Amino acid sequence: MELLFQLAVILIASKVAGDISVRLGQPSVLGKLLVGILLGPAVLGLVHETTTLEQLSQIGVILLMFIAGMETDLDEFRRSGKAATFVGLNGIIVPLLVGYLAGIVMNMSTFEAVFLGLLLSATSVSISVQALKELNKMQSKEGATILGAAVIDDVVVIIALAFLMSMAGDDVNLTMVIVKKVLFFAGAILAAWKLVPWVLKKFAPLKVTETVITAALIICFLYAYLAEVTGVAAIIGAYIAGVAISMTDFKREVLEKVETIGYSIFVPVFFTSIGVKASFEGITQNLGLIVILSVIAILTKLIGAALGAKMARFSWNSSLGIGAAMVSRGEVALILATIGLDSKLISQELFSILVIVVLVTTIVTPPMMKFFFQRGDKQEKIESIA
Questions:
Q1: Is residue 18 assigned to a domain?
Q2: Among 265, 305, 332, which Cα is nearest to 125's?
Q3: Overall average pLDDT of the 133-143 stretch
Q4: CA 272 to CA 332: how far, in whole Å?
Q5: Domain span holding position 218
Q6: Dihedral sign computed on CA atoms, order 82, 86, 91, 96
Q7: Would you say 264 and 88 are in contact if contact means Cβ atoms under 8 Å apart?
């Protein structure tokens, strides 16, 4: 029965906090993230992290990225391939180098310092996707570039991590890591072209309720599962599934119903649960290091990705908006941090510090995106009038 109470509290608080955030001129997702901290053990203690809540949260982020895939403009996505590559790679190189140097300064070994750099190179755009939707940038060139760069970022960082783990002595077959990823993307693209439309057409005439949406969710969850199994993040699999659905005649029907399912319960649980994970235990003793690593995490990804966007000839405001969207490390960095802790590449104390740093990057992403993108829109209006 405790779960029912926690869900009721989360849904009420997230909607109210989102509304307040919008009224204060910020994206609603910022309020949802902050209210999670308020509800969690760190403050009020009304909501606690449980296995069931975590699983509901996972469904939430998967549905969010599935929706993002369905809303992607494929023509714009194809045109943004070069820009996405610049943004993705620059957004890895700068945090990796600065993170490595920070690790050396902290007296880490070479492997530990490289791992810290890789962790700071990670990106999770699940938060950015919601901000893009609220800013009406989802189907823009900037939105397509951000989503494409996130896919590149995920693949490169995971392969680099596998290489590091194999060098550090862990039993990791780098060739198999790469082969599995290639097989996933090849199979996902082939299935999107041939299998997904066939499945939807076969399910549509069945004499039971909501057959099309059920088929779409099956496709989404299978893509997410297979992505996770092959070492690609589940959110990337869900995103590709959404793109596959967008190429069929069932796109509008599926999109409307998945948005209803997702935004009514699962997505609010995801946003709020990020804040619930916050723990400020020992924060005073390590406050200086938390501030330094947070500044490094924000600036390196912002500057690196923005320079990549500028190389692709975006304006400075759009470039900084794209860079801001890549700042959130989210669940991807938390997964990497857990791997580092299990492999003894980082200490328990540093793990706790990094969890707070990841939370900071996640919270600052939506307002930064709004600031840069809206400033760019105002500049464009001024130039068009002139």
A1: no
A2: 332
A3: 89
A4: 17
A5: 56-259+296-357
A6: positive
A7: no
* Per-residue pLDDT at 225: 95
3-state helix, strand, coil in the chain (%, to 5): 80, 0, 20
- Asked if residue 243 lies in contact with residue 220, where contact means CB atoms within 8 angstroms, the answer is no
Q: Which amino acid is at 315?
A: S
282 is a domain residue: no
Q: Is residue 80 part of a domain?
A: yes
| Confidence check: pLDDT of 259 > 90 | yes
Tokens read off for 53: 């809540």
pLDDT > 70 fraction of the chain, expressed in percent and rounded: 96
**CATH number of the domain that residue 88 is part of:** 1.20.1530.20
Split into its structural domains, the chain has a count of 1
The structure's pTM equals: 0.82
- Of residues 336, 359, 273, 328, the one with CA closest to residue 56: 273
Instruction: Flag whether 22 is in a domain.
Output: no
* Closest to 125 (Cα-Cα) out of 69, 177, 82, 180: 69
In terms of C-beta density within 10 A (0-12 exposed, 13-18 middle, 19 or more buried), how is residue 42 classed? middle
- Over 80: is that where the pLDDT of 2 sits? yes
Torsion, CA 176, CA 181, CA 183, CA 188, rounded to 10: 160
pLDDT of 327 strictly over 90: yes
